[in-house]
Structures are given as structure tokens and as C-alpha cells.
Queue: 3 jobs
Job 1
Amino acid sequence: MKNKFYYFLSIIMVFTLSLSAQWDEYKPDPQSVLQLIRKEKMKHVLPLAMRNNNVDMWIHVTRAGDPDPLEYEFGSTSGYLIFTDLGDRIEKAVFAGYFGGEGGIEDIDITASVELRRAITGYDYGKQNFSVYNEITEYVSSRDPKTIAVNYSDWIAVSDGISHTQFKKLEKILGPKYSKRIVSAENVITEFRTRRVLREIVVQTNTLEIARQKVIAKIKTIVPGNIILKAWSHQLHHWQQPGFGTQNMFFSVETFLL
């Protein structure tokens, strides 16, 4: 265990030292980095988050025009993301009008039919037959989860992305049997967002190094008698704010890639 720790630490140090010498020359594609981080979190963190909280299935409901608090974790979505613990792996099903966007996660096991995708996007809404959602009903019943976590919470905003009407619709889709098994996904979401993969740690380490170099470069521009200290301090303080340039857990990725 100790050897693994020193191995990871050495990787971080190598990245930091190389960046220290020429940080402004490294310009990777930000969406590619985000996609890699998302894939690693889905593979390594999601199973732990679900199993540590005794959740067999996690249904994450989103809707176009209503910003999803977990957009940076999953990409742009509109519909139902369903993660099911099959024992040996987590099955990923996407019943959505659209899914993905820049840096969106990949390796989806099951996707919605054309008819269901149209229904979710509101296509010809007045003539919709609710039976089109049987696709989701049958999927859930075939997995028969004992516990279904859904993105609602009365105290954690980022875990409360589902609207009241969406929740009522989900209950109708699931039916009485499975609706009784719904619990809040707040613990799963919290663990999924706060656990870090190695790539995130490396990126955040490099971000701090970039920030340090920017601050030093700014300090060197100070000319006694010619600098308004209050204005300069305000700008420096703005740089140091958590999430500068973003609104999510991946703030370090975007700052790192500026």
C-alpha cells in the first residue's frame, strides 16, 4: 500500500515539475480531459458510491431547459439515466431525448428507442400515448431493484435536480411496486462527486502550480508608487476564488486548460 502511495506521489511530482518549466506550452483538449475523468469515475467511483449506500439502482432524471446540477459529471442530458448494480459491474442505461455533449460519458449499455426519445423531447406531445414509457417500466422490473435512488433531496441542492412534475411522472412510470422502493440519491451523489480519481488529483496539482506562477508573475509587475494596491489586490483575490471560471467540481480542469 505504501509503495502505491509513493508511486502516485511520484507521478504527481513529475507532472508538476515538467509543468513548472513550461506550463504555458501544455494545451490539451479540455473536453478530452473531462471525458477521461468522467469515464474513470464511472468505472471506479460509481460502484463504490452505490454499494456503500446500499443502492441497487440509481435513476437520475433531467429535463431540457432545466439545468442539471450534475451536468459536469454526466454531460448534457434530457431524460432518464439509470445505473444498475449487476454484481460484477454497473450497467448504464440512457432513456433520453439527447445525451452526451462535449466530453460526455461513453460505453452506454442500453439506449432508448426512437419513439421514446421523441416522447421525452416533447415531440407531438398532445398525441402522446403514455404506454411509450413502458420501455422504462419493463427495464426496471426486469432488474427488480430493492432500492432505487432518485435525485431528490430536502437539504442538498446538487442532489435535488428532479422537479415535482418529473417525480410524479417517474412514479407513474415505475408503478406502485417500485415507487415504494424510492429513496433519496443524496448520499450516492455526494460520494460520487467527492471521491477523486488519480487524473483529477494530477490536474488539480497542476492547477495550483499554474495559479502560483500567475501570482508570482503578477507580483513582479508591481512598481512602487505606480500601483493602486486596492485594485491589484481585488484582481488577485478574484483569481484565488474556488471555482474561478466554472461552477462545478471540475473547476480545476478548466482552469488548468486555460
Job 2
Amino acid sequence: MNEAILRNATSSSGTDAGVPGATRVLLPANQTVTIRNPGYPGYEANTRLEWLFESPPNTRIRIVVSYLSLESTYRCQADYLELLDGLRGLPQWNSTGRYCSRRHRGTVFTSSGSIARMRFVTDVSVQRRGFRIVAKAICGGYLTARRGELSSSFSTSSSSSSDSYPRSADCTWVIEVRPGRTVEFRFLSLDVRSDNAQCQQDFVSLRNGPESGSPFLLVNPEQGQQQNGRLCRSALPSATNTSSNFLRIEMKANGDENVGSGFRLRYREVGLGCGGNIHLSSSSSDLSEFVISSPSYPSSPPAHAECVWVVMAPSGRRVQVDFLDQFYIHPSPGCANEGVEVRDGGTEHSSLMDRFCRDKPSTQKSSGNALYVRYYSNLDSPNIGFKAKVKIGLVFFPPYFCHFNYVLKD
């Protein structure tokens, strides 16, 4: 495998991803890149450097922190290495963590799309040896086009055949279309090696939502009623629709040299579904509130449905969600079977406010300007579901403390 080493990297011109002064690092499919801090081993005080990583379309970026020797402080407030993900493959940066301790050696970061950032910051006090990371492009990616084709073909070395998938493939693609739409997809080819229809070696799985725990789409034509969520061999499933505006595709291979050519599918945005990113605006009454609901409400949604909404309010404002009508969710311990999940922030990792599956919830309010709402059902016959209104919440000001002078008279 080819490897490039960037030593004493400094600033270069900005890029289209909006990171002025960052060193741009292009990651072709057949090469790893090793980056060390300037002056390694050792670094200067008061350093602030950034790197912008870019990989080919429909790929992701994997960064391994192979060595780290920095001033270790609580929450890495002095010297630190910070990794940021370009959410959905766009320059919407989300910090995944700061690293400064030896226990952070071996940290593996995987981007959601084809761009990522790395930031190295030091203060004036203690200096140690520095850091070394290894970055490379891997299969997977985040697709937001309204229609397109997706192939598992990916070369990880100059000697690999571009017509086959990596023999140790661990790939994830997420297709997102506009809110209120669904994803229709059709396999054009399928050649994934496995000894039997249960796909115990290499396989592809499809999920009805963007998360790793989203419900499987059970479409294997060789498995009949005993579906396990895996596709393999060469039997093509019928054209299928998701019930949300997300389709997650995962591919895993067990490392055998005997691999196939993989898969190729075509997808397009269709119909009415649920979920998506909602940007509320105080400057327009049309965008100051938005109604969300489970699919087909007030009729029953499809089996194994999932919808995820990320609601954003203007800076300095909160997001408020008011549940309307009746709340028809099958109750279960811990709301494991179906429910509505609300998180205080914009991602699945944000602080959990609550999961609801019994009585209609009271009004929920975020502490910041983002709220994550997820409807999910793992049932073959789900209940009707829910309906809610999301809107811009009131601005909350800190209390004012008033001081009065009293004059006592005889």
C-alpha cells in the first residue's frame, strides 16, 4: 500500500470547504497519509494549525491517532488534537472530541462523508513530543442527490481490481432525500460471495433510516419468511421504497480472498414520507413552525418505520415541540418496541430528554437552538402514531436582580 508522509505541515490557502488557512490533504483510494506535528518529536508553544481532509465522492475518511504525547489536562484545555466531522459530507462541522492523553492513542475516527478537519492547539506551558495520525479514504459515504447510482466497487491498493469490493470491507452509505419524500431503490447487479442464503460470510444489509440501529428492510428473495436483514449471492430483490427519507446501506466482508464484484443500485426520491432537517425562521411566518407526524398519520404507518427530524431554530432561540391530538403508541418497557425519542441537540448522540410510548407528552423545549426527534417502530402492526408541531420557542433571559436602598425614618 502506498503511503505519503507530511512532515512539518504548515498553512496553505483556504478551500471550498470554508477552512481558511488550513492545509489541504487529498486522500486517493490507494494511499494512506501520515501526518506529524511540525518539529516532531517536539512542538512549539502557542501553536494553532488545521488540516482539511478530502476523499473521493462516495467515500469516507478514517483517521487513526497512532501516537499522542501532549500536555494532559482535564478536558484537554491546554494542548489538544481535535477531530471534526463534516456532517452529511458538507462543511457543517461537528467536533467529535479533543485528545491530549496517552489513553487516547489508538482512537479511530470515521467521517460521515468525504470531508473532515483536524485541529492542533498548544498553550504556553508544557510541551511534549506531539502526535502522529494515519488517514485514508475508505468505502462508504453520504449521498444527498435526488437520484443517482451507487456502487460498492472501491480500490484500496494499487494492485486491487477496481471491479471487486475490499476483502475486509466494512462500508456504510447513507442516502438522504428531502423531508416528506422516500427513497425508491433497485439493484442493477449483485455479486456478494457467501456459502448459503443466510449470508454468513459477506453480505449487504439495508436499513429504513439513517442510524446503525434503524429497522432492517427485509428484501432477500432467497430467505422467504425467515429474513435476517442480509443480502448476498446474486438473486436481485424487487424494487423497494423506504418509509422515511433515509436509506442506510451496510456492506461487510469476512476477509476471505474469494470476493465478488459487489453490488450496484439505482435510487431516486419519490412519494411522501417523513423525517428530515427543518430550519425554522423567525423572519417568515411560513417557516416559524412545522407539523411533523408518523408516516400516513392518522392511518397506521408501514411496519418497521423510522423517521428522524433535526429541527434548528435561529441562534439564541429554543425549539419547542407541542404534541397534538391523541398519542397512539404501543407501550412497552423502556419504549423498546416503538415510541418517540426527543434529544436536546442535533444528533443521535445528544443528551436524551425522554422516550415516550404511553401518555401524550407535555411540551418539550430544547436548551439550545437544536432538537432531535425520532419516531421508530419495530412492530409488524404499529399503532397510529403521533402528530406534533415544532416551532421557535421563546427567548429565555437570565433573571435580573434588583437592589433597593431603604431609608428608615424615626
Job 3
Amino acid sequence: MSHRGDRQRDADGENLRHFNIVLALVLLSVSVYLTIQHFYSNILVCSNNSIINCESVLHSVYASFLGIPLTVLALIWAIGIILILLKQNEMMFVTLLFKKKQIIDFIKLIWYVFGSVGVVYSIISQILVGYICIYCISIDILIILILGIDIYLHKKRLVEW
């Protein structure tokens, strides 16, 4: 009975890891869309009203950090987290990039710090602009979900040891 419960917990953890990869792929697609919008305006599909105005947010003075568009930074973050999550799941084609689990954990920690700072910056910039960008908020939510699921899985692994 205990052995069956262990297998179920392992399967649940594996499902969450795969779900995290799916979230990261959704994050990548939204980031690609916004990056294309940044360089080729007039393709943005977003309602503009008293609260939501993606155009104003994406073209505000806060839409770049150190001269780099936030959409590009989100795209880079999405690609990086996909690679990290794939390696974490021991996918074959990424195995050569990283050698040790400790290196992956350290890179992941640094990557999550950058992602968290990006979320805070995004939210503050939208408050300062006075409008919400639904795509930007979706990126923020996806990053928070990915981070939360991974922390949960990491904590779960520590408890099981």
C-alpha cells in the first residue's frame, strides 16, 4: 500500500512538472507576441478602456529597462526557464548544457530572482502608467505560477527526504 502511495505522489509531481513546462510554453508564446508587437506596431489585439490599455503600457517610458524592451526580457526569461525545466525533468537534448544538479538549482534560483524582479517592475510600471496591459499581467501571473509550482515541488522533495 505504501509503495502504491509513493508511486501516486511521484506521478502527481511529474504531472506538475509537465504542467509547469506547459505554462512556460504559454509564457513563451505571449512573450513572442508582445516582442513582435514591440517591433511591428499595429498588430496588438487589446481593448482600450478606462482601465485596460495595452498600447499605453507597452509604449510607456517604463516599457524598457536599461534600453532593452521588457518584452524581449520576458522572451529571454521564458526561453531560459524552459531550458531549466527541461533539464530538471532530465530531457535528453538539453542534458549537455548543465552537468550537476547543484548548478541547475543555482541557475534556477538566479533566474527566479530575475523573474520576480521583472514581475514587481511590471506591476509597478502599470500602476505608474495608470493602465493595465492584459498581456503583461498574464506574463506576470505565468511567472508567479511557474515559480510557485516549482517551490512547491522543491519543498515536497525536501519533506520526502
